[in-house]
Structures are given as structure tokens and as C-alpha cells.
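Lecture notes, unit on protein representations.

Consider one protein chain, 48 amino acids long.
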Amino acid sequence: MILLALLLPVVMMAFLFGADALEDLIFPPPAAPDEDAPGADVARTTSL
């Protein structure tokens, strides 16, 4: 009975990890912006 009580959380965590990995495959997270390219939220400055 103790083995079953220890096995249940392991199975639940494996299921949640698998579901999360499957979700990332179906809906990939947005890519990080390229650090070399200026971002749209960066204020443009002019030099004189």
C-alpha cells in the first residue's frame, strides 16, 4: 500500500510533464526577439 501511495504522485507528475511537453509541441512558445535587431519598443534617438 505504501508503494502505491508513493507511485501515485510519480505517475501524476509524469502525466503533467507529458501534457506540458505535448502542449509545447502543438503550441510552441513565442520566439525570443533577436538581440541584434532594434526592438519596436526601443525609443529612436537622433544624434546631431
